[in-house]
């Protein structure tokens, strides 16, 4: 929103120097708020043009004074434009401080967001953070860029301008413009909360805009395949080898609890034989970094044997792109008579519920096998 802005010069006539001159003052007005400053100049009040805010006459002194006043006006105008573009919030005091060299540089939301994402990317490259989480931060960054452009017509906003109303407005944008459900909104608001925490911890922000904001994650039913549906999937007659691959990869995740990413990254080094002479999967989960130790059941072992040696990069399975696999397993499930909506993560739910817990595996063991950081995550399936 455009602010009303003006700069005028006037004389401080009540202060008369010994030589009869009086100080020239400047007044900056932004949206009705005013602030004054000294121009460090003195003039003969008889030569002052009150309406024009200038010295009359063609003398050298008059021309030099007017030149300096014009130069000040240009500088003040430039500072006003810079603050407006940078912060989208201008006050007369901020413009004066910038002109006098006393300006406090305000940190902005997108500036903090960009730096956070750059640092997070370095941690991902070092194997310290999950790539999926980085993608979430990047998605929210893009949504925030679009939100600021559509709702506020700016590219950035000062941290000090964040309010509870701003948070609620962003939530409404996610719901209406991006058609996000409540849990997705909750997921996307969390990165914004992270940026606010960073700002508060660095003392760039003194007031928490989330103090009056609340959104609760809705409880959802974790979908999984039943024993009968697993049997249909295993016994279904498929059209070609590609469909067999999609089914095998999905079943492998269902009988091990591995996520798609961890299944794709699985190598021969992750397959180990322990004291019980059984083969085990030992892998650090890409998402959490937590170590998972999973005993290979017969079905999972047979699937490994079917594809072992086909990859030149040391990986166990020749895994196509995620979207290809997802579309493939949905077509396979439909062909096998499964009417349930299929997601790949559903295979992990199936492992936890149908394969492990339903067969008496202790929840603590299931938590360790799934690589959960907290057993509370596993208790969702109990």
Architecture overview:
It comes from Bacteroides xylanisolvens. InterPro entries: Arm-DNA-bind_5, DNA_brk_join_enz, Integrase-like_cat_sf, Integrase_catalytic, Integrase_recombinase_N, SAM-like_dom, Tyrosine_recombinase_XerCD. The mean pLDDT is 87. The longest helix is centred in the first third of the chain and has 28 residues, at 60-87. Helices cover 49% and strands 12% of the residues. β6 and β7 (279-284) form a beta hairpin. The radius of gyration is 33 Å and the shape is rod-shaped. The strands form three sheets. It has a three-stranded antiparallel beta sheet. A three-stranded antiparallel beta sheet has the order 6-7-8. A two-stranded antiparallel sheet has the order 4-5. By secondary structure, it is mainly alpha-helical. It has 14 helices and eight strands. The two termini are 53 Å apart.
Task: Give the SSE layout.
Layout: E1 5-11, E2 22-30, E3 33-43, E4 48-49, E5 54-55, H1 60-87, H2 92-99, H3 109-125, H4 131-152, H5 164-176, H6 182-201, H7 227-235, H8 241-256, H9 260-265, E6 271-273, E7 279-284, E8 291-295, H10 298-307, H11 322-335, H12 345-356, H13 363-370, H14 375-378
Family: Belongs to the 'phage' integrase family.
InterPro entries: Arm-DNA-bind_5 (IPR035386), DNA_brk_join_enz (IPR011010), Integrase-like_cat_sf (IPR013762), Integrase_catalytic (IPR002104), Integrase_recombinase_N (IPR010998), SAM-like_dom (IPR025269), Tyrosine_recombinase_XerCD (IPR050090)
Domain Tyr recombinase: 220-382
């Amino acid at each position: 929103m455009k602010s009303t802005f003006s700069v005028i010069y006037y004389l401080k006539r009540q202060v008369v120097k010994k030589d009869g001159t009086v100080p020239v003052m400047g007044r900056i007005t932004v949206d009705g708020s005013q602030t004054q400053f000294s121009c460090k100049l003195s003039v003969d009040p008889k030569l002052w043009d009150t309406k024009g805010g200038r010295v009359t006459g063609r003398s050298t002194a008059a021309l030099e004074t007017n030149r300096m006043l014009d130069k000040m006006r240009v500088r003040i105008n430039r500072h006003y434009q810079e603050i407006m573009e940078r912060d989208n919030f201008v006050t007369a005091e901020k413009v004066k401080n910038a002109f006098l060299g006393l300006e406090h540089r305000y940190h902005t939301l997108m500036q903090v967001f960009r730096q956070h994402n750059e640092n997070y990317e370095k941690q991902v490259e070092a194997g310290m953070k999950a790539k999926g989480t980085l993608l979430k931060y990047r998605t929210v960054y893009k949504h925030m860029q679009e939100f600021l452009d559509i709702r506020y017509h700016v590219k950035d906003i000062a941290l000090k301008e964040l309010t509870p109303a701003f948070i609620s407005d962003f939530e409404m944008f996610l719901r209406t413009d991006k058609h996000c459900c409540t849990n997705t909104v909750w997921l996307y608001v969390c990165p914004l909360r992270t940026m606010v925490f960073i700002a508060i911890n660095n003392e760039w922000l003194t007031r928490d805009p989330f103090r009056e904001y609340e959104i609760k994650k809705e409880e959802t039913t974790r979908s999984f395949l039943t024993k009968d549906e697993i049997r249909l999937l295993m016994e279904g007659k498929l059209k070609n080898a590609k469909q067999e691959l999609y089914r095998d990869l999905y079943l492998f995740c269902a009988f091990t609890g591995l996520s798609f990413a961890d299944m794709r990254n699985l190598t021969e080094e992750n397959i180990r034989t322990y004291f019980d002479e059984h083969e085990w999967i030992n892998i650090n989960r890409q998402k959490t970094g937590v170590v998972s130790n999973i005993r290979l059941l017969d079905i999972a072992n047979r699937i490994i044997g079917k594809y072992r040696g086909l990859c030149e990069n040391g990986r166990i399975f020749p895994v196509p792109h995620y979207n290809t696999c997802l579309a493939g397993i949905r077509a396979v499930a439909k062909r096998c008579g499964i009417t349930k909506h299929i997601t790949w993560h559903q295979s992990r739910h199936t492992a936890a519920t149908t394969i492990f817990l339903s067969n008496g595996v202790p929840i603590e063991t299931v938590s360790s096998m799934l690589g959960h950081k907290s057993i509370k995550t596993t208790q969702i399936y109990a």
